[in-house]
Each structure stands twice: as structure tokens, then as C-alpha cells.
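Subject: for your reference before the review

Hello V.,

The reviewers asked for a structural picture of the protein, and I figured it would be easier to keep everything in one thread rather than splitting it across files. Below is the amino acid sequence we used in the manuscript, unchanged from the supplementary table.
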Amino acid sequence: MAKVPLIPLGSPRDAVLDKGSFDKNLEAMRAKDAELERRRAEVHAGWGEKYLERVHAKGKLSSRERIELLKDAGTQIREVGTFVNDGRKFGKLASPAAGVVTAYCRIEGRWAMVIANDNTVASGSWWPRTPEKIERAQEMALRLRIPVVYLVDCSGLFLPEQSRSFPGATGAGHIFKKNAELSAAGVPQIAGVFGDCIAGGGYMPIISDRVYMTEQAYMVIAGAALIKGAKSQHLSSLDIGGPEVHVHQSGCADVRVPDDQVAIRMIRAELARLASPAVDFYRHGADPLPPHHPARELSGLFPADHRMTYSADEVIARLVDQSLFWEVLPNRGKEMIVGVGRVNGLYMGFVANRQGLIDDPEHHDHQKAAGILYREGIAKVSAFSRACNTDGIPLVWLQDISGFDIGVEAERLGLLGYGSSLIHTNSTNTVPMFTVLLRKASGAGYYAMAGLPYDPVVQLSTPITRQSVMEGRTLAIAAFNTKLDDNFEIATTDPEERAAIEAGMRETEARIEGDMDPYAAASRMDTDEIVETGELRAWLELFAEASYQSSGYRTVRNPRIWSLHDIAVLSEARG
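And here is what came back from the structure prediction:
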């Protein structure tokens, strides 16, 4: 039991899919990826070149330029929440990425969460959903115990929309509660203050362990304009709360620095002083290795038509180190794959939905559709999820699910009870869980597979993700069920009524199809980020390293004493 029994998984691409089908899939996916890149670029531009020039004219850097300086050279920024508020207008104004950048960055060899007000969008103001986005990033850092870096340049609430960002359980003030929770958990917080920090923007850095202020920065409860109006005093905001005040008098900041570049160097130096990441220790002597079957092939494995199937085994084979995998309980609940592989040398648990047809254990001469949760699969996933939680193995959920089995037999077999057990398990797990919506994320199956309502640390979507209770046509039939006969045909013979029902069903189907668009979901914060399928391996490397980076706050058993070994032994066939 000293070694996890990893065995080769997957086949070369030409044995999985013919070249014509692969190329067709790849072409369709590349079009989706190109759209994703275009839309990312639009968000990254903020309010455009004119506003960037204004920032530079003040001798300051933009938020994204600060992040580029902050991260380790040659590493990638892994942004979350890129498309929050995508497509929304506030009057005539847009708020790209809700006016704040939240991103995982590698800094001095360790992962940190960076939260940076976009000073090219209304001077870094907080819009509707800006507080929720910041709080979501803070929660990710809290769950993983990774440092948080705040790059603060915030003129407070965008006042014309204050009613949608000030009050409520996740209103702007909740950011400061998350600051306090991070502090109470011992998570390092470091703030650089670069410019306007008014009202909530002024409170945001205060609880941080270190606060750096540039010569252009100020932190104030109320800015000069408000004080002039309220008290008829003619002062500048720097007079009220600049570094002279807060570094040398109030003690609300620690260090005064001349400019953005020096502040970034000092923040990097602070992170370098933290304890070394525990990642190498938890590799148990293994080297990080890429998958044997290239991850870049994922883009051609997913069919262009979402109704067609693919091999989930082949997907996992292109995500785990050397394409080696230990499948647990392989002969039970075959609609589900559960098992363990290494990602960058670190053990990760995987739960995935098989596609296509599988044998039906209840009726040996029948087959049934995979991509659906049946009794054995639910029980298998519950047991695996509990064991990973006990053993300290982070979990990756690869969703492509249509929902739970339904009907008389499903109820007789007690699917409600088994589903409740799985929901209880995933609701009480403390091990880091990460969810990837590969394609379909439908019905209660989306919940059972650790969808966003069940608090995964991060939920990713791909450009082909379809997230809804059910498909548009199916939902239209359900919505107009009283107008249809037993064959789901419109029951009336009245031409006008028939035309109205047909129009209503078409409108419902089209609306649901629009709601299923991944950008719509990301705009509503119903998913954290949209990523290319070819980027999934890199994201899993981040998840693995961030999960194991900090030691001493959760159980991480050595592989010799995993509960998974007990499950494997008890499931072996006897001679």
C-alpha cells in the first residue's frame, strides 16, 4: 500500500477518433476559443486607451500592469470572474469585469490571490456585483489558506448604482468581514495603496498585515469634495489621508514608498518571507510530469454536436501525470468514474460522468444511457467523496451530466435517499473541491456533482458548457404541458390558439438556450471563469499546488493509510 496502484489510461488520438472527426471537432472548438480570446481582450481593455493614458499621465500603472510586475516572470495569470457583468449596462456605462481584477498569481514561487481595482474603469469604483466578486476571491483564498494581495486604487461605490452594491448580505461591507475572517484564520494579507481609497476603498486595506502607500495614495472615510461640502474646509485628499498622515501619524499604514514599481517590489519581498510552500513535501518524491497523451488534444475530443458522446477516460488521460490513473470500484456504478491520479506530482481525486451506453446491472439484457446518476453510481461517488475527504485528497469533479434517473423504478430504488447522502457528503467535506463543467450541467445532477451551490473552491466552465435545469426544448414542453397531448403534440384544433402556443414554446426554448450560454452564466456569477479545454491541465496544476501549498490546517494522510485502500480491498472479487 506504500504506492498508489496507478496504471496507464487512455489511447493515442488516432485510436480514439479518426482524423476527420478530430479535425472537425477541433475546428469547431477553435472558433469557440477565438471568441473567448476576443471577449477576454475586450474586458482587459477596461474603458479603453484614453483612460489608460490618463492613468499613465498621473505617473501610475494600470491594475493589469501592476499584476504583470507582481507575478513571477514567465508564469501565467489565472483570472477568475473575467466576465462578471458581461453584457450589462448601467445607464450608458459598462463595467468590464465589474471594475476589479481577481486572479491567482504565482509570486516568489507560491500561489496568491490578487485583488486589484481596475483604475481604468471609473477610477476603480465598486459596481453592482463588484463586492460579490471580491468576496468570492477572498473565500477562495480562505479555503486554500493562500496569501491575499490587495492592489487598492478605489474611489468607493459607483454612487448612481449604490442601492445594488451597498446593502444586503453580500454588500460592500461584507468585504471587510472577509478581511477579518482571513485574518482570524492566519491567512497573510498584504495591501498596496496606489491612489484613491475613499470610503469602503479606504477600509479595504486596513486589516492587512502589511500596508504600503505610494506618494500619490490616500485613504479616507470621506474625500476632499465631501468634506468641502459638509464642513466648508478646503483641503486635498492627500492632506486628509495621504502617507504623511497614515504612515507617520495614524499608523494605519506601515511603509511609504515613492511609486508603484517600488511598492510592487516590496510586496514581492513580503511574500518571499513567508514559509516555503509544502508542495514538494506532499509529492512524496514524485517528479511533476505532463500527461503521456497530450492535453492539447482535448480540444479535438469533444464533439461539435453536444448530443454526441466521447470517452471520459480519454479526457482524464489527458489531464493526469503520465496518463496514469487508479480507478476505484471500476465494476460498480459504471456510469461514473472515480479514482486518483497525480497532477504535477500531487495526488488528486477525480469524479467524472461516463458518456454513451453502459450495461444495466438491474436488467442484464439491457443497456442504459450514461451521463445520468443511477443508484450504484450515486453510492460509489458518495463513498469515494467521503474517503477523499478523510484522506485529505483534493477532489476534481468533471461534469457532463443530464441529471438523476427518474421514473417508477428510480423511486422504488430510493434515489432520493442516495442522492441526499451524496449531497450531505459534499456539503460537509472540508477537503478542497474543484468543479469543471465540461459540457452539460443539468438538473439536480449539477448539484450532486459539486456544482457551485455546494461550494467548490472554483467552478470552471468551457466555451461549450450548457448549464440549466433541462434542455430548452424539454423545458418548453414541461412549461406548456397542460396544452399538449400524451405525445407532446399541441392538443387544440383552434388555429389562433395553436399559433400562440407554438410561439410561446419557441420563445421559451430560445430564452432557455440563451440562459445556458456560458457567458450569461459567468456574467451572473453562476460560474467563476470560462476557460479553453486546452487550458484545463494548467488550471488543474494550479488547483493541485494551491491545495497542498499550506500545511497544518487540514488532514493530509500519507498514501499508506488511505481509506481508499480499504474500499478497494473490500470490493475485490473473491475466487
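For the response letter, the relevant points are probably these. The CA atoms of residues 399 and 438 lie 6 Å apart. The longest helix spans residues 19-44.

Happy to draft the paragraph if you're swamped.

O.
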